[in-house]
Amino acid sequence: MSDEERYSRQMLIPGWKQEKLTNSTVVLVGAGAIGSYVATILVSSGIGKLIIIDFDTIEFSNLNRQLLFRDHDLGKSKSEVAAERLRDLNPDCEIEFIHKKMEEVSVSIYEEADVIISCLDTFVGRRWINSMAVRVESPLVMGGMFAFLGNVQVIIPNETACFECQPLVPEEELAQACTPFGEERKKEREEEEKEPPLPAVATLSSIIAGFMSQETLKLIIGIGNTLENYLFYDGLNNALTIIELSRSKECPTCGDLYKLEQVEFVVNLEELVKDVTLRLILTYGLAKPEIMIKGTILNPEESVKDVIKQSKSTAFIIDKNLAKPIKVVLQIKD
């Protein structure tokens, strides 16, 4: 079967360029509910290369909305099984899988992407992949869901608001995972009993995945208008809302102030390094930051006066929420 036959209907669309899809590479992070639908649509459409990153395993509760998996797949790697099914769906597409945590994947993989797609179900994970996309300057399509509510955001680094820029701080439940953890995530987080299952429905998975896939195809082909704001979908009330977003020059991930290395963070000689890190957590919403000066990680129990000898010192703030350290100037308060 020729490409013209397989893709004949979509090639009838004015402005459609199938060769751009054939020559493109997409990195998909998260092969769960939304991710499995996105992967299926892109591979059916003839994406050239799809790299799937997911280190979790298949759980029984996944099967009602993660369409690439079957009963006999329980306990297996999501990324590996997804790749196998997708190769059967379209042998012409190159499908790779990486059964690792996204933080452990080489930066070169993300650099290869024409588009990165985030189908992650935790707020921390979304922040990390956002910072990676900004770092490698690759367009990022993000989506999430909670019961009948869903959202989509398209991020063009240095042009549109990134995930960190937006003022839409999620409710506590939206920052949690939308599905019980597989065995690998249970081992890492040790929260098998602590993490309650949250509501999810297959219809929302397919709807949000449809929006995300459509934006990805548009970006690659260069057709139509890209979603440059925040799309919110309420399935119960059939409401679709577009919320306008603007880049923040003070954004620690993509803000111009950080590019120009002009951001200063005031410290007191009498405080401990751990006091400074606490203020960094409160200021930037970090998890467990470390401060590095001249290649050395500062000891949290040391005092500022013992480790910072100049009135202004350049430091790098390292945190698991960020793919790239924040560069700031620590200024000693007079």
Describe this structure in words.
The structure is a single chain. The chain has 11 helices and 13 strands. With 334 residues, the protein is α/β, with parallel strands linked by helices. The chain has 2 domains: 241 residues, NAD(P)-binding Rossmann-like Domain (Rossmann fold); 72 residues, Structural Genomics Hypothetical 15.5 Kd Protein In mrcA-pckA Intergenic Region, Chain A, CATH 3.10.290. A hairpin with a 7-residue loop joins β12 and β13. α3 packs across α8. The longest helix is centred in the middle third of the chain and has 20 residues. It is elongated, with a radius of gyration of 21 Å.
Beta-strand residue percentage: 15-25%
Helix content: 25-40%
Q: How many helices does DSSP assign?
A: 11
pLDDT averaged residue by residue: 86
CATH superfamily of the largest domain: NAD(P)-binding Rossmann-like Domain
Rg, Cα atoms, Å? 21 Å
Q: Quickly give the CATH architecture of the largest domain.
A: 3-Layer(aba) Sandwich
User: In what order do the strands lie side by side in the largest sheet?
Assistant: 3-2-1-4-5-6-7-8
Total of domains: 2
Described by the principal axes of the CA atoms, the overall outline is: elongated
Reported by name, the CATH topology of the largest domain is Rossmann fold
Q: Topology as H/E string?
A: HHEHEHEHEHEEHHEEHEHEEHEE
Name the CATH class of the largest domain.
Alpha Beta
